[in-house]
Fold these 4 entries.
Entry 1:
Amino acid sequence: MTSERSVKQQSPQKSSPAIALVLSGGGARAAYQVGALRGIARLLDKDVPNPFSIISGTSAGALNATGLATHAHRLRTGIRVLEYIWGNIQSDQIYRLDSAGLISSASNWVFSFLTNRGRRVPASLLDNSPLEELLRQVLRLERINANMEAGYLDSLVVTASGYTSGNSVSFFQSVNNIENWSRAHRVGIRTELRHMHLLASTAIPTLFPAVRIEQQYYGDGAIRQLAPLSPAIHMGADRILAIGVSGAATRRDPHPEQLVQPSLSQIIGHVLNSAFVDTLESDMAVLERYNQLLPYCTDQESLGIRPVKLLDITPSQDLNRLAEDYFTSLPRTIRMFIRDTNSSSIASLLMFEKEYCKQLMDLGVADAMAKREQIHEFFKA
């Protein structure tokens, strides 16, 4: 068998083809991605720099993507930083848990819903100002440009959803000469990424407030993102490693005696769960079908099309089911909103508690190691 340390990588400017990492959204479930990255790092040389010339992230996946980009000079350092954050996280580092903050946020949300007024006040159930403070503490964004200039990274993409335009907007920072693009409900905008782009990408609708960037308000990037792989392809990816957070293949069908009318939190969780996981799975299926059909196209060069190799790592267990096991670790105020484990979808999004996140990271490591041969093959020059 191939040694786990036998895969060698050079810095991105020397590597060909262009390898992209795509990290999907999913709230607290994004801890799984960090574990999967740890498993991948075990298969590479110890001091290897970031092997991905393109990193694209959405929602909480955008936070992980940016964390890697700020430490692109050494892959394991970036992963260790993310492991430390996710391994010590608490919900009060993401959203306010004090009674005054929760009552104020809920009141603004209800008032906005009933009257459609007061739009100068953010309408959300939770106040995520602690997240903004956390991001400013742990993510030194000036390092992104320095790492790009040093050749450790070509492009970083953060996707958000425009509430006014209805478009999925991919904000990208790149050393390559890539122009803005516009497709049906999808646009790409070159910019220098800031913390506001990350807050916009993670602003889960109804839960966290929208973020204004120039002349538009933005929410979570998973909403309206019909083709999560497309930003990486626009940036020139020849190979894509996608880490999802669904575990859809492991979901359980309910027993008839368990059927009850869904609660509001269960309905919100269902809608958000669909946005976070279904589009990535669908887009991967489309890309695989596209690759299968390409050999029958005799004029690929003139048409500007090319095959894009894909490797995906997704949970082997149902993350919603795992969230049920840690339901009591949620803050009491959040449990009052969710109320029962039937709302495990939304619980798994808001379970920013270290015990649950460590469990997800362990699962990510195991799932990556289970694909060691595919990973070795993926990184071969």
Entry 2:
Amino acid sequence: MKSKIHELKNKTNIMVGKKLVSLLLLLVLFASCSEYQKALKTEDVAVKFEMATRLYDAGKYNDAIRLIEQIAPAYRGKPQAEKLFYMFSQSYYKTKQYYLAAYQFESFVSGYPKSEKIEESAYLGAKCFSMLSPIYSLDQVDTYKAIDKLQAFIDSYPNSTYLPEANKTLKVLNEKIEKKVYENAKQYNTIMEYKAAMVALDNFVADYPGTPLKEDALFYKYDSAYQLGINSIPAKMEERLNVAVTAYNSLMKFKPDTKYKKIADEMMVRIETDLKKITK
């Protein structure tokens, strides 16, 4: 009986303790919110700076941004400005506002060239554009910007600890551009603009000789030449079919066991049949 009473008391004490902790947290939160609201309304920039720092350290970046936006003009050129604008840049970055973060990081790098945070800021400024880079099928303006910024960072900081990550990101971005160029070239084949397809795919292979898409590019060039040949007027058919034979040979030379071999061979049978009819 005594053990049950003791157990009940323990449970009661635990429940009371939890309620007290919850109440304390609510009071702290209320006090914190109250302080933040006061800081927003005060004209004292030092109070705003101190509260912004506390919020930044606590990971409350959006709240910190509101305060920093209010006092940034007043702190330009002052000793505290370096810390303030670093927090400003990081807060935008942490909240995924990458355009604003990129601008602030670049401003920080140009404004504080001797800062111990300059290498990190230069890298994160470049990285912001990579975060804005869309899927390959969309406009790649931000991707090109990211490539330029990352390459500039690599050139400026060849021994940086961020170098492996920067090179990895650069590789992904270049592959995205490569994919975009390939798909644009292939699109001519899809819409039956076969002459344009052959030129575009040729250019793609020349510009990206080590591309993993070379097999595909060579096949669609062959397919374009094939379609152009078999659908030609008689006066141009022989010449165009021979161009298709050359394209077939290029594909087979590059990869004899190509994934397109079955269909490529079937197309070649048609080409050879048509060529025999012409030469009879």
Entry 3:
Amino acid sequence: MLNLKKQHFAIFLLLWVFLSSCNGIMSGIYDEPEDETTDEIVFGFNGPADATRYILKLNATSFTQWIYVDLHDKTLTVKEIPDTLSLTGKWDGRTRWELDSVRGEKYIFMRDIKVAAQEDADKWDLAIHHFDVKTNNGAVYETPYSSIDDALNHTDAIKAATFAGDEWTSHQCIVDMTYMMSWKIWFIGSYVNPVLTRWVTMDFSTPPPKYSVSNRVYALRMSDGTYAALFLDKYYDTLGQKGILTIDIKYPL
């Protein structure tokens, strides 16, 4: 009986060694989970330097940063949102953090903190804060198209459409969601483009927020008279983290 057990053990050992050695050979036969952290698109501008159609990927997960995008030179600049007054202590009379109790579209003021005005990048065309967007004296039109390929067939009509400029808002740019489950959210006053910011909306009727996307191509008219087409392909990564943006861009349009 003892010898039989030894024989069984030896056979099992040989089979284990054989199957282990075949792991690399057989691995392509069976479905295996993909590495969800792997992404062929890297953060920044993806495509040849002289490309007029490319992908821009941004990590806009932070609520306390603006990412300034220069489409002309394909450069990015990150600026922190002020949380105090400047060293001079001078206030511009409107920029502040505001804590509100949020009930759907109703905002009940609770308290505020005066802060310094946002310092913009030296050269930029649009800036992104999480899902919020502002332009550098530009304007935006929401097209009826769901792909840039379709929009490219209607560039004349798009350029002739009515474009909307940026507006000042006190209840759009979130800077702190720590107390979100109690319906309390900190906002900062800022210019945003109300049209382009619709590419992702957050519904706070019942926390946590619910997200929805427009799936529309947006035309951006810049201060120099040139146009760009923007389409938000994704607003989260493969792990579901919100604020990882993948943007399909055509510039110039």
Entry 4:
Amino acid sequence: MARPVVAIVGRPNVGKSTIFNRLIGDKLAIVEDKPGITRDRIYGISDWNGVSFSVIDTGGIEIDGEDFILKSIRAQAELAIEEADVIIFMCEAKSGLTNSDEEVAQILFRSGKPVVLAINKVDNMKRAEDIYEFYSLGFGDPIGISGSHGTGIGDLLDAVTALLPEETEDEYDDDVIRVALIGRPNVGKSSLVNAILGEERVIVSDMAGTTRDAIDTPFERDGQKYVLIDTAGMRKRGKVYESTEKYSVMRAMRAIERADVVLVVINGEEGIIDQDKHIAGYAHDAGKASIFVVNKWDAVQKDDKTMQHFENGIRDHFLFMTYAPVVFLSALTKQRLQKLLPVVQHVAQQHALRIATHLVNDVVSDAVAINPPPTDKGRRLRINYVTQVAVKPPTIVVFVNDPSLMHFSYERYLENKIRAAFDFQGTPIRIFTRRKSENEG
């Protein structure tokens, strides 16, 4: 199921990150009263009255002179238009309607995409009157909101969800493994697709960001059906796009949403950079099975320890994804390429693995016997029973006497014991702690 996407668009410093945090109920975006402070495009899931959708906070505008501000706003708005199903166009009452607001409005208006106009910083009755000038933008009734106080957010969400398309069912059968390739521009995603398929199905160029759209390519190998979802690089090569790699994230998110297995492609020549961590983090947060694919391995000077050193570097940088295997290959020479699909198939199976309740209880009981939970102020966590409630990713509920006594380090210990018993290679495991109610078992 692919969730619909909502993008929050507007000029700098209208409070986009604050509203984003309100919508997803978290503090993911950095909020600071300084234009352009959001350094990374941030992605989250929101749910309103049972309707689930993805939210993109399209901050990320680097401020570098007036002309560059306008170019950045235009680039940001155009990308949001392209990828989003509904756009929240944010202005703010304090400074009133500006030329920059009108610039964004023109782009949005031409797009034909559904737009909800939200006027932030409506913190008192005087400000409530200030929203009327925004009618001139042509997007119907402006909705007055306050990110800091939370007022008007319900009205905003009602308006947004009324315009959302329904979640779309995927057109592929359950036995098809959907594989998304993600990574920053020019790590060789398209070359890897072509190498796997054995034909030039995707345009390849040395210039970063030449893939135009996410392209689905079904194929079959050794009786197993796959679909490769190649995520687009950056759409244009103007100054704005060259100055930042954030603009490819929205498209990558859509591919991740639809995938069973995510290949996090890293350029072996360049090594690991922070952007790789951000991109891999999206796959982890989405609960997808993942494999690190180190491409361009043919171009790396190596001895018998190089591969181990590189893998150690991945483990150090990606501490949150110790479960993900690493495959070294070259899309150009096809060196070690044959190792990839068997690993894809294996982690897809682990991602969908369901363990019988009595087996997982046996493992946890043994783990508790070896290493009992520590006490907290004289009270000890007591685990009553454990059961797996979902797959993709494997999700386990631990019923206990008091969830507040479950320390994250003990939860990590239980996860490690479960992994040691049942493998689960390549997939995150979700563990939830719940209080055992009186009428249970």
